[in-house]
Fold this sequence. Notes:
By secondary structure, the protein is mainly alpha-helical. The chain contains 12 helices and no strands.
Amino acid sequence: MSLDTTFNAAQKPAPGELIEAAKKKEDPETIKAVKTLLLRGAEINEKDAQGNTALISAARMGNTEVVRLLIAANADLNLMNNRGHTALSTAVRTGSVDVMNLLIDNNADVNTKTIARQRTALMAGIIPGWHAVITPEVVQTLASNGAVLDEKDKVGRTALMWAAYFNQTEIMPVLMSNGASIDELDDEGHSALDLAQQNNSHDAIVMLEGIFDLRQRQAEEKARAEAAEKERVRHETVAEKQQNIKKNAPKLKLKAAPSP
């Protein structure tokens, strides 16, 4: 999809006009307005006072068709606002799955970090705020498209650590099944389990302790199996040595007793 951006200089939109149109609730009139502004030569990557572009604004509103138009007009997918959020991290935070998928399909960077706290889109989606609760579907989509799951933020915490801290047990299995480690430590030496315990995140504690218990049992079973195998080999070796000794022992010939 492409747009003819030829325009008459006298008709060029006023600063901020495209951003304002992109942040309105998506309907046929909004889509038409955005198309018209693009054809009139609106500055595609212009930012407002908060650093939001039209693309970031549309992503926040979940305006899928507007996002599609802006991508077709070569909007920069990875520009950040003043807080370091991109269109993708904004879509993740607002739960706009269709927008998120559209951005990823057009090669938005899934590992870009916010400026101050150094958080990826995945981390930003996990930490509660004004946005929607991140879903397993969103986590899996990010993981499947190259999100580095054990990436750390400014304080050394990973996505799994934050999920454990906030008791988000629906997404923790998805993170772990895609390779997120429960053994990572933050800058203060805390693990995901430590952080869950700090915040009294009961379900996360139960889940992580269960994994550690299972790991311990498996380690003990492996140790027992290895010990049993070692003992079996030792017995076989001893038996083989005894057999060889018996086999190679000189045979004594008994002399017949003299006749009376």
